Amino acid sequence: MKKKLLFVESNTTGTGMLALKKAVSWGLTPIFLCNKPERYLGLEETGSEVIVCDTNSIDELKKTIEANVRVDEICGFATTSEFYLEAVATLATHYGLPGNPPEAMRTARNKSLTRQALAAAGVGQPRFAIVRGQADLEQALATVPVPCVVKPADDSGSNDVMLCNTLAEVEAHTLKILSVTTNMRGQATAGTVLIEEYVDAPEFSVEMFTWEGKTTCIGITEKSLTGFPYFVESRHIFPAKLASDVEEEIRSTVIKALAAVGVKNGATHTELKLTPEGAKIIEINARLAGGMIPELIRLATGVDMLEQQIRCSVDGPKDLVVEYSGHAGIKFIMAPEVGVLSEIRGAEAAQNVAGVQQVIVTGKPGAAVQPPQNAYHRLGSVIVKEGTYEETVTTLETAIEKIEVVLEESVIKN
């Protein structure tokens, strides 16, 4: 019986380690391929076999697998890391196991390729220009005038996504992005910058599962962002409060977008803006949502997104029946100014607010902190579950007001 599930790296926020434990609980043998085991807190407690190799090389991955694993015992390949989606798709295709086409994952990972695929399919999206060097800037700004959003084509976590208001800002930020040649996992970057029309409209994300080309919508998440010039998510509420015809337009737009990119299997997290002209796709992530959105979905529907995603690596999602039982929300703890963190107070008081499910503090005393420029700068979160959208918003605000970010010479309420 095929029982070995091979993971190629994971994210580092805990979901990856939980995925390994879930595989063990189902009687599978997870094998974790990684290049730096020390990156993963709690890896030794997951019950998985760890094999160290160069995970940034497909050839090395294949050699390692064939030297250490009986191929006829492999039931699937998985990852919870954005940076290894294409590698997992390539391995699954090579060994004839469930997965996405590698070219689809390449298109989803590189946002400039996503933009081109959506344009060819006539899917709504912002105006855009692709820049691979300073010589492309003049033409790009003729296509997309300032103010505009400038971002790397293949990073994650809102890293280096910035609203630029002047030509000088566009040029400086473009050159900054182009100067980065490797990402945080040591992979070569695409060396490509996207310059996009700034769309001033409400933002949502759509959480879906696709299996053998058939897509099921789990729900739509309302997203709130920090102030300019950066676009870091500060709050999520699931499900969003929308009219049924608006929900249908959003769902149909995303399904068309996924087909354009070529997604066949697994979870997707698609971000969009809802404009008077209709839904416009901001980006497609061929993975589970971050920002604890899967936990909000579990609280509001009972659907375990992580479990279903792992199953998509083996034999497909099970019992994807979505029934809402209220709303769930998260608000992130953030530092409103630059400083050195002394402590974060009020977590226990926030936890005692009725409706609060979980208070997470990730900021460490002595660490340098700042207003967030990407998701990695957040200092924790509060998660709530309530019956209505309005109650969810109120409880989030009540709980977060009890949190104090204490810097070395000041006390700041969130």
TrEMBL record:
Domain of life: Bacteria
Organism of this sequence: Tumebacillus avium
GO molecular function: ATP binding; ligase activity; metal ion binding
Pfam families assigned: ATP-grasp_4, LAL_C2
Family matches, as InterPro entries: ATP-dep_AA_Ligase, ATP-grasp, LAL_C2
Protein name: ATP-grasp domain-containing protein
Keywords: ATP-binding, Ligase, Nucleotide-binding
ATP-grasp domain mapped to chain residues: 115-314
